[in-house]
């Protein structure tokens, strides 16, 4: 059985590893796109929107609704990628906690 000092050292080590993982995620860019890549968005791993790009052929003043739907699709795809990467990177620490 671990003593308290060993548990604290292990917890501190895991905390540093988690912080490193969080920093790496935050520095990673995630791209989401709509059907046919007509709309694409870029986020950082900490869910900050960096850019939204529209292909000229999707911009139609008479059909703003399609542009909105494609933008939503692209944003949701990027956020889903971020969530998956976060779970993969940080979820691994849950089983390593010493308590």
UniProtKB/TrEMBL annotation:
Single GO cellular component term: cytosol
GO-annotated molecular function: DNA binding
Subcellular location: Cytoplasm, Nucleoid
Entry-linked SUPFAM superfamilies: YbaB-like
Protein family: Belongs to the YbaB/EbfC family.
NCBIfam families per record: DNA_YbaB_EbfC (TIGR00103)
Matching PANTHER family: NUCLEOID-ASSOCIATED PROTEIN YBAB
Subunit (UniProt): Homodimer.
Protein name (record): Nucleoid-associated protein E4U01_04470
């Amino acid at each position: 059985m671990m003593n308290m000092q060993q548990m604290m050292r292990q917890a501190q080590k895991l905390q540093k590893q988690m912080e490193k993982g969080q920093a790496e995620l935050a520095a990673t860019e995630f791209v989401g796109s709509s059907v046919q890549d007509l709309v694409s968005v870029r986020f950082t791993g900490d869910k900050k929107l960096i850019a939204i790009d529209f292909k000229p052929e999707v911009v139609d003043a008479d059909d703003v609704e399609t542009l909105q739907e494609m933008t939503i699709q692209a944003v949701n795809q990027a956020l889903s990628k971020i969530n998956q990467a976060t779970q993969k990177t940080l979820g691994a620490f849950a089983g390593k906690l010493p308590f």
